[in-house]
Amino acid sequence: MKKDTKVLHSYEMKDKLTGAASIPKYQVSTFHQENILANQEFVYSRFGNPTISSVEKAVASLENGKYGIAFSSGVAAISSVLLLLSSGDHIIMCNDIYGGTYAIVKDILEKFSIEVSFVDEEDSSAWEKEIRENTKMIYIETPSNPLLKITDIKRVCEIAKQNELISICDNTFMTPYFQNPLDLGVDVVIHSATKFLNGHSDVVAGLVVTNNRALQERIKSQQVNLGGILGVEDGWLLMRGLKTLAVRIEKSELNAKKIAKYLANHPKIPKVHHPSLKSHIGREVQLNQASGFGSVLSFELKNQEQVLQLFNAINYPLVAVSLGGVESILSYPWSMSHGGMPSSEKQNRGITKGLIRLSVGIENAQDLIQDLDQALKTI
Ligand SMILES: Cc1ncc(COP(=O)(O)O)c(C=O)c1O
């Protein structure tokens, strides 16, 4: 089955009972039990719900995974996975990382005396060098947010396996359409389904997928205990959004490649970050491990004043904290996605006051380029 067919037909997308063309919304909190001593599949919606179970199966099948768990947000998924660690454990994470994941590390993991090292993700040996006696987990985000840095998933997972570490990969930017980390050796894949999987900027959701039964059980129990479940309405919307993943992501990636090229040739822009560009450091690794470059890019202006001028002049993109919608979304990592990170940490990571992130949508590429062009002329 080709991947665009897989997006629609590798899981049950119709209701078995009635033949309805979409899985119904089981808008319930609880389920009647005929026999209180017998096991039944659905008991209480915090433990499991038929609509949510369908979404979990759908995303798991797209990731070539056996088990999916849907969460109330990407961050709920990430925190449930990171809290598999115990006090005194050590985790190695990529340097360039989503601001909310960094916040979990600083506000929660460190409070529980879980040690964290951040490494240069582009250098596989840096991951290996950082392993200590108490290291239990490695955490990859590739391409990373917001600098699109690429980690060699296969190589880093080999290192993890040799050292009996659990490997986690945030696959939000690529989606299973372009990259399948489980096939490359990752133990647990995480998604902010708020982004491309849903694709319409109208749902907040998270997904975890794994092939490892023991990990599935631990993460599921973590979710039952912490309570970060996905609501039925949002699960249903996510399932609907998923059906058009292929057409959305193909079109937005095509646009992103054109825009990255245009920006890279613009005299007012010193640097553009997108793996489609020959100048991008991780490009070769990306070509080996993914079938696309994705539609999130970032670029640098000289200073914050220029950034403000561009944001004031731009017309089409939504100016917002998010990405992966059908509409283009422009954001400013310094004060938005990474606003909670101390300035010195941002500077160390290359998140400058001149950095702008663009999630390219499915509009006409020429219109988007003309809009950027007129906005850049005001600088
Ligand atoms: C790469 C990445 N992972 C995780 C998240 C968190 O997802 P959510 O906002 O759904 O909690 C985001 C949000 O922007 C993200 O960009």
TrEMBL record:
The modification N6-(pyridoxal phosphate)lysine is found at residue 195. It holds the Pfam family Cys_Met_Meta_PP. One of its GO terms (molecular function) is cysteine-S-conjugate beta-lyase activity. Belongs to the trans-sulfuration enzymes family. It comes from the Bacteria. Signal peptide: none annotated. PROSITE patterns: CYS_MET_METAB_PP (PS00868). This is cysteine-S-conjugate beta-lyase. It is an enzyme of class 4 (lyase). Its EC number is 4.4.1.13. Its cofactor is pyridoxal 5'-phosphate. Keywords: Amino-acid biosynthesis, Lyase, Methionine biosynthesis, Pyridoxal phosphate. InterPro entries: Cys/Met-Metab_PyrdxlP-dep_enz (IPR000277), Cys_met_metab_PP (IPR054542), PyrdxlP-dep_Trfase (IPR015424), PyrdxlP-dep_Trfase_major (IPR015421), PyrdxlP-dep_Trfase_small (IPR015422). One of its GO terms (biological process) is transsulfuration. One of its GO terms (cellular component) is cytoplasm.
